[in-house]
């Protein structure tokens, strides 16, 4: 169990988002199971066959092992999560809605980066990003609640350096993981500035659309379907559904909340482009709105200013007048990486050390011709939301392929050892907690001996 846990902790992370997206994609491509069924139930919380199969497929896609024993282990983990969830209700452990929404946005941004754009996600799953978020939200909230319950149980667990060494030394030599090349890579992004003439042209187009609605009586939703540059809401008549305060960018929210139901805003500018907004309804802290978004033609902007800016910034970094990390935090237009000093972060481990094979292909090809420590001259770049930009890429460190060892992989081994210790605490907790809840497993999975294996 320990060796399997170690390998799982270091290499394979199955996230609820990955599993749910895998299931959605399979169904979008006509690969869904014909009939879903309940395979386990903990109080009112159920584990569906589709949930088990999606998690299993996700593990296989991450290079994990296959077989019935693996499915049993995954089902065991899903059942433990449902017990955590049931006990969280009993013990009044609650995850704030804002935290769930924030984490959902963060994970969807990561998947946008993986796919290349929101449009590609929507093409892959046959649904808008907003529809996917609605479907995934409950699963994510359950996952976060179970995690918070687990954190409560293990919050006082600590581990010493000697325990880490003992853990590592207990692993059979033929079971020590082999890590491929790891790198730390970052970038500083500067988006091109849209000219005043382009902004004026965009405003004029939106004002014309607004006039057609307000004066001409044309249908807002029909015009949104034709003219809006927001792929998520445009096809749905610009409808965004109910949003809580703080969910939208400040400029959008401020304009929407000044409106009366049915009223249409003047043209407003945000980081996404230019909008007109119609308020549909308000209830307490939530409001329902639709919008038409038009973006200036970012493909036609002049990149010279952005290139010169980054050239100057690169010179300052090379002359040691400012560090790359500080420059990224202060000047990069990429909010996803600026907080980490410009470095890309693995979303599963939250580490800046990333397996080279998991890098964006363009970044991988860029550093393939670089020396460690070098910074590229400005390179043309297209941001995730379609803006033209320039960036400089920094190749900070490289760790060659190797078998895990205490010198190079201390943090990974520390995390795995701490994880195993917490796992034992969770198992001990489970033995007591299972008496407080009802656990029913489908007869087909009796062979897994789930409850017995947790003793």
Automatic annotation (TrEMBL):
Which residues belong to any copy of the PpiC domain?
180-281, 284-379
EC top class, as a word? isomerase
Example GO molecular function term?
Answer: peptidyl-prolyl cis-trans isomerase activity
Source superkingdom: Bacteria
Give the EC number. 5.2.1.8
Q: Which UniProt keywords apply?
A: Isomerase, Rotamase, Signal
A Pfam family matched in the record? Rotamase
Per its UniProt record, what InterPro entries does this chain match? OMP_Chaperone_SurA, PPIase_dom_sf, PPIase_PpiC, PPIase_PpiC_CS, Trigger_fact/SurA_dom_sf
| Signal peptide coordinates | 1-22
Q: Which PANTHER family match?
A: CHAPERONE SURA
Q: What is this protein called?
A: Peptidylprolyl isomerase
């Amino acid at each position: 169990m320990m060796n399997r846990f170690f390998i799982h902790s270091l290499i394979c992370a199955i996230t609820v988002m990955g599993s749910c997206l895998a299931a959605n994609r399979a169904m979008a491509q006509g690969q869904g199971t014909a009939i879903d069924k309940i395979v386990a139930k903990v109080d009112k919380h159920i584990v569906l066959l589709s949930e088990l199969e999606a998690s299993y497929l996700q593990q296989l896609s991450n290079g994990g092992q296959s077989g019935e024993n693996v499915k049993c282990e995954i089902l065991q983990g899903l059942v433990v999560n449902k017990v955590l969830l049931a006990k969280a209700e009993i013990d009044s452990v609650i995850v704030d809605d804002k935290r769930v929404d924030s984490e959902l946005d963060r994970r969807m941004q990561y998947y946008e980066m993986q796919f290349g754009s929101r449009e590609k996600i929507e093409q892959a799953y046959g649904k808008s990003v907003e529809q996917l978020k609605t479907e995934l939200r409950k699963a994510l909230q359950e996952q976060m609640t179970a995690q918070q319950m687990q954190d409560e149980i293990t919050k006082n667990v600590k581990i010493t350096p000697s325990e880490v060494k003992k853990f590592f030394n207990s692993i059979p030599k033929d079971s020590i993981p082999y890590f491929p090349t790891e790198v730390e890579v970052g970038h500083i992004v500067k988006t091109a500035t849209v000219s005043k003439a382009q902004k004026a042209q965009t405003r004029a187009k939106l004002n014309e659309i607004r006039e057609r609605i307000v004066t001409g009586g044309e249908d807002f939703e029909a015009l949104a379907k034709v003219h809006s540059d927001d792929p998520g809401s445009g096809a749905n008549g610009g409808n965004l559904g109910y949003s809580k305060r703080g969910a939208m960018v400040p400029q959008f929210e401020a304009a929407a909340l000044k409106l009366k139901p049915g009223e249409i805003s003047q043209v407003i500018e945000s980081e996404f482009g230019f909008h007109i907004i119609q308020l549909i309804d308000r209830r307490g802290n939530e409001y329902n709105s639709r919008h038409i978004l038009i973006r200036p033609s970012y493909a036609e902007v002049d990149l010279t200013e952005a290139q010169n800016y980054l050239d100057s910034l690169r010179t300052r970094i090379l002359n040691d007048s400012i560090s790359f990390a500080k420059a990224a935090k202060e000047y990069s237009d990429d909010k996803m990486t600026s907080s980490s000093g410009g470095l890309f972060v693995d979303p599963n481990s939250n580490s800046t050390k990333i397996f080279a094979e998991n890098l964006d292909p363009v970044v991988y090809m860029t550093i393939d011709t670089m020396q460690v420590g070098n910074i590229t001259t400005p390179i043309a770049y297209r941001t995730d939301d379609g803006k033209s930009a320039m960036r400089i890429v920094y190749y900070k460190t490289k760790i060659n392929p190797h078998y895990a060892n205490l010198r190079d992989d201390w943090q990974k081994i520390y995390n795995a050892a701490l994880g195993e210790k917490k796992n034992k605490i969770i198992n001990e907790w489970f033995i007591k907690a299972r008496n407080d809840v009802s656990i029913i497993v489908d007869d087909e999975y009796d062979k897994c001996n789930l409850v017995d294996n947790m003793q």
